[in-house]
Design goal:
Layout lengths: L2 H27 L14 H25 L9 H22 L6 H6 L6 H28 L5 H4 L7 H32 L12 H25 L6 H32 L2 H13 L1 H19 L7 H20 L3 H4 L5 E2 L9 E2 L2 E2 L10 E2 L8 H24 L7
Antiparallel strand pairs: 1-2, 3-4
Amino acid sequence: MDTPKKISLTVFGLFMAAGALMWALQLGRGMIVTDMHNAYSWGLYVSALAFFVGNAAGGLVLSSMIYMFGVTSLKPFARIGALCAFANVTAAMLIVLPDLGQPFRVLNLLLHPQIMSPLVWDVIVLNLYAGLSLIYLYLLMLPDLAGRTGILKKIALPVKDPAGFSDTWARRLAPFSLVAAVGIHVVTAWIFATQGARGWWHTAVMAPDFVAAALASGTAVVMLVAVLCYGTAEKFQNAFRIMAIFIATAFFIHLFLMYNDFVIHAWYGTDHAKETLAITLQEYGLAHAFEVLAPLLGVVLLLNRHVRKTVSGIIGGCLLMIAGIFVHRILLMPAAFNQIPLTLAPLGSQNTLWPVPIASGRYNPPADTFVTHHSYFPTLVEILIFAGVLSFVCALILVAVHKLPVVKEG
């Protein structure tokens, strides 16, 4: 491993250690060290869950496209796609643990599962997807495992034609991978859309919008890793062009679905719906502008063939897309939690409803204990735990690329 990779791995290791330390602090002192409370119960952790799930879905969709639709120019990046899918779905399962407060509460899902709960469906689908990603990555690497030494040679299946076996089974698994990749995001979207008290999430476009945003950011993650591994040689330019078009198409579908929902809310919506829109477009107006303009600039960069011939150009375009979709995941929360679902009609008034303040669960004078609004911003504990999980994804990909035959030589 060369020096830049060692330095990167050291930095990732430090962030992972800091994240583990902050999680230990949270376990000791409780959720009070976060900025979440009774009235605003989902924050950075759940936003990151949706973000990592999206990146995972995009990775395996790209790999399965090669065998289902014959996009052979993407074949050198198939292993990277499967690896990114596995790393991100593992991160999705990790980041949800701090949100539970006590990690052993996850056992309740196993000991007392409520099969009608989308949360149980999500746990099942995420585990299946992690297993499928790992199997897919193994099959794709199989032709090169037999030529290695040590443990890699021992785990290689003793088949007569490893390359043919790999192609055959990758083609057979491709439809299941595609369905699973779409499925994990649909189920994750249903977790939001089925929350009865959060009107902001009651929309039929939630699931397709989740899938579109996932395909944009997930493909950008694969493209980012691919350019770092392979560079921008001429033989890969067609693959980068296809990925750029795929990212742009998915992002514009996401924009259409998002603003279509905004227009419907504004046109037919109640005062309640309009107030919800105002939270996103006014109170969080700068963040909303970033979630739209940053990926848009990323698309402009990636669609430019001159930019695609530079490593820095592709990295910049992909990072803008990924950052914009991450902010989009963050903005799922404020409009949902800052609209109090409980109201009462004052005596003598027929058309007026007053929101009923909710106990925040915190006594912190002079702030009110009962609130109707909370300007959430993650604490340093939440940020470092998220940074630790993000570093885990980067470190896992870096080590796998170095130790396993993920990158084809020649």
